[in-house]
Amino acid sequence: MAELIFFSGTMDCGKSTLALQMDYNHRARGRGGVRFSRNDRAGESRISSRLGLETDAVEVLDSTDFWEEVMLRRTQGRRVDYLICDEAQFYTPEQVEQLAKVVDEIDVDVFAFGITADFRTRLFPGSQRLIELADRVQVLQVEALCWCGRRATHNARTVDGVMVTEGAQVVVGDVDMVVEAAVPEAGHVPVVGYETLCRRHFMRRVTAHGASLMAQQDQLLPFDVDACLWHGSGGPGEGRGIHGQGSKG
User: Fold this and answer.
1) What own/partner pairs with CB < 8 Å and gap ≥ 24 does 21-29 have?
2) What is the rounded average pLDDT of the residues 109-134?
3) Which residues participate in catalysis according to the annotation?
4) Residue 180: Cβ-neighbour burial (10 angstroms; 0-12, 13-18, 19+)
5) Could you give the angle at which helices 66-75 and 93-106 cross, rounded to 10 degrees?
6) Contacts made by residues 225-228, CB under 8 angstroms, sequence distance 24+
7) Given the DSSP bridges, would you call strands 58-59 and 162-164 parallel, antiparallel or unpaired?
8) Residues 64, 68, 69: CA angle, nearest 5 degrees
9) Distance between CA atoms of 223 and 200, rounded to whole angstroms?
10) Antiparallel, parallel or unpaired: β 109-114 and 82-85
């Protein structure tokens, strides 16, 4: 029986690596499949892993219809036994329903990979629909880590090194970026990045950069105070001129 399986986790926990490995395993057993992705860090029509693995894929657009994609290939005599759907958080709810239809009506396995919640801790529409419809939801066991060493549970967005909690839901950025927080200058283009944090430091808005600055100033980490009160945390009254510059999260 075909299944719709949603593999979820934070950034940096190996979702794309697993997607590529599963595709390899199924192809090695003679199964035919199609790889899909959207807004991959390597560019359009790619699936890439931070380990350096990368391959081609079909870019998912708002107009993409998965039912039509599968039926077109089958009418052309191409074998389609499974779909690899990376960055599935960016799919529309209607596209997730199309994936469910592909599973139920023509027995095609669908393996979807994506982030559950955005940098504001709100569910992506695509991820929400996957949770509602998937036969199984599996949280990846390779845990991303917060700078403090605890398990990372949240994706934080930073602008010029300062954590923000407002802005567009999807803006391109990556966890590999290291940006020094600075006072924006005339003509300066804000740099968007991402960082995985444990819940404690996400709620207190303490990023690795912020913790480093506080350590340099011989200050204790604000476990007993609201980190939003710390100058540079991006809390109330700070960063309001740049909070609209979001990132892929």
Assistant:
1) 22/84, 22/111, 23/55, 23/84, 26/81, 26/82
2) 94
3) 87
4) exposed
5) 40
6) 227/201, 228/204
7) unpaired
8) 70
9) 9
10) parallel
| Matching residue, tokens 């740099």 | 191
Confirm if 49 and 62 have CB atoms less than 8 A apart. Answer: no
pLDDT bucket at 229, cuts 50 / 70 / 90: very low
DSSP bridge pairs for 47: 55
**pLDDT mean across residues, the chain:** 82
Report d(CA 57, CA 167) in Å as an integer: 29
CA distance 159 to 138: 31
C-alpha closest to that of 113 among 31, 177, 47: 47
Minimum mean pLDDT among 19-33, 37-51, 58-72, 234-248: which range?
Answer: 234-248
pLDDT in tens, 163-217: 888 777 776 655 555 545 455 566 677 788 888 888 888 888 888 877 877 777 6
Rounding to the nearest 10 degrees, give the CA dihedral for residues 181, 231, 213, 51: -50
pTM comes to 0.69
